[in-house]
Amino acid sequence: MNHVFHRAPRQTLPYAVSGDGMYVIDDKGQRYMDACGGAAVSCLGHSDETVRRAIHAQVDNLAFVHSGFFTTDVMEALGDRLAALAPAGLDRVYFVSGGSEAMEAALKLTRQ
């Protein structure tokens, strides 16, 4: 018995312990292709060395600041990159954490 209330409380879930590329590996060594959406890292795979180095370098410098109160070099660089890829006339970006927040922000901006 544990204290986590899972989505399927009567089901015993595999215990994930590591990841390798597109696979999640459980405590028994079973490999599962990770075809789940959701967290941003899902599309990057697991244990990619380039991604790990980038995350580590950023955390060593600054783990998080709220984009409503601060800007950072990486935020500005990503904004520049996204604006360069966008269609003509779309030259500003607004960072949010997911689809629901993006829809809410779009509705608020439209009303303003």
Oligomerization state of this entry? single chain
The fraction of residues assigned to DSSP E strands is 5-15%
Question: What's the average pLDDT?
Answer: 88
SS field, number of helical segments: 3
The H-and-E topology, N to C, reads as EEEHHH
Outline the low-pLDDT stretches: none
How many β-strand stretches?
3
- Helix fraction, binned, reads 25-40%
Question: What characterizes the major β-sheet?
Answer: 3 strands, antiparallel
Q: Going across the major beta sheet, what is the strand order?
A: 1-2-3
The N- and C-terminal alpha carbons lie at a distance of 50 Å
* Helix/strand class: alpha+beta
Radius of gyration: 19 Å
Large-scale geometry = extended
A few lines on this structure:
It is built from three helices and three strands. The chain has 112 residues and is of the alpha+beta class.
Describe this structure in words.
- This protein is an alpha+beta fold and 112 residues long.
- It is built from three helices and three strands; from the N terminus they run βββααα.
- The protein has helices spanning 49-61, 73-85, 99-111, and strands at 16-20, 23-26, 31-33.
- The chain has a three-stranded antiparallel beta sheet, with no helix packed on it.
- The longest helix is centred in the middle third of the chain and has 13 residues, at 49-61.
- The termini are far apart.
